[in-house]
Amino acid sequence: MFIIQHQAAELWLKLVLHELRTAREHLAGDRLQQALKGLARVKRIQHILTEQWSVLATLTPSEFVRFRGFLGRSSGFQSYQYRAVEFILGNKNDEMLEVFRHDEHAHALLSGLLGQPSIYDEFLRYLARRGYQVPAPLLERDVSHTHLRAELVPVFRKIYESVAENWDAYEACEELLDLEDNFQLWRFRHLKTVERTIGSSGAPVGPAACLSSATR
């Protein structure tokens, strides 16, 4: 069960990454509705990933301790595809490259995404092309870093204060907020499942450990 759970999660993450890359291309090409269609699919997958934790939560501490020693200090957050999804959504951390330096494929994937615009970056560029007053420095910034800027408040205030006149941008904002909420919920369910199975002081386990043990 443990192995299947996490291998299935890795497959879903692979699809999420594919859909997010495609949505990013649509945003760059001003094809907002196509981008939103892809994001809607990602949201469905997020619900599946979150609900999967209810299956793993049936693993009792006494059952888990039988094989815990084989997992070492592996963590679900060591999954390179999980980090890739974070990167393309805009949460970037170049220190993660060192973690995956031993894996040529993972390192190349993350290095590429680190230097590419995120979904968030492409959305800001889309807004700028639509006439919204996105500050130029934000459009020309180093995309390898995460950023949250107060200068964007007037842009989003305009969208949310006049929804009817800015419906497309408003809809996109809400879809992106849904993605963020779902991502945080998934992380929370992961945390609570780990706490239920091994306690709050134990090292979390996840895809990296599972896939490693499955190939032994």
Q: Stretches where pLDDT falls below 50 for ≥5 residues?
A: 202-216
Number of strands: 0
Secondary-structure-derived class: mainly alpha
Arithmetic mean pLDDT: 86
- Output the radius of gyration: 19 Å
* End-to-end C-alpha gap: 17 Å
Q: Largest beta sheet, briefly?
A: none
Strand content: under 5%
Measured as a percent range, the helix fraction is 55-70%
Order of helices and strands: HHHHHHHHHHH
Q: Give the overall form.
A: globular
Descriptive notes:
This protein has 216 residues and is an all-alpha fold. The chain has helices at residues 2-28, 32-56, 61-64, 80-89, 96-99, 104-114, 119-129, 136-139, 153-161, 167-198, 207-214.
Short summary of the structure?
The chain is an all-alpha fold and 216 residues long. It is 67% helix and 0% strand.
Task: Spell out the blueprint of helices and strands.
Blueprint: H1 2-28, H2 32-56, H3 61-64, H4 80-89, H5 96-99, H6 104-114, H7 119-129, H8 136-139, H9 153-161, H10 167-198, H11 207-214
Helix pairs in contact: 1-2, 1-4, 1-7, 1-11, 2-10, 4-6
